[in-house]
Amino acid sequence: MSEWTSEELEKIAAAEELQLASVRRDGRLGKSVTIWVVRHGDDLYVRSWRGSTSAWFRAAQDRHGGHIRAGGVDKDVVFVDADDDVKDAIDAAYRTKYRSYSDSYVPAMISPQARATTIQLVPRSTGS
Length: 128
Fold this sequence. Notes:
This protein is α+β, with helices and mostly antiparallel strands.
């Protein structure tokens, strides 16, 4: 696996939304979904506001790979379950970045069901 460049982190973190497609069983990319993305340090995170029943999340858990597009960045990624010790910081990042939506969507993004689906997006290095 590799790391994000500073430019990629800035562009993706500044994007309001991210397009994410999980790898399907046949190895092709599934239909992309539009989701929110937050940055914490040098890492990027996403969550399923529908919890673990979301199709993209189930595919991410099964196959651990996909593709994202946001802020002009197009990248193959590996989905890694986030450590519990960063989930409070991820909650705070969602509250801050999406504060204009606070009453309508943010509570769902920081609910126990969504927190349980916190995934770190890691760039896939070439050859992996």
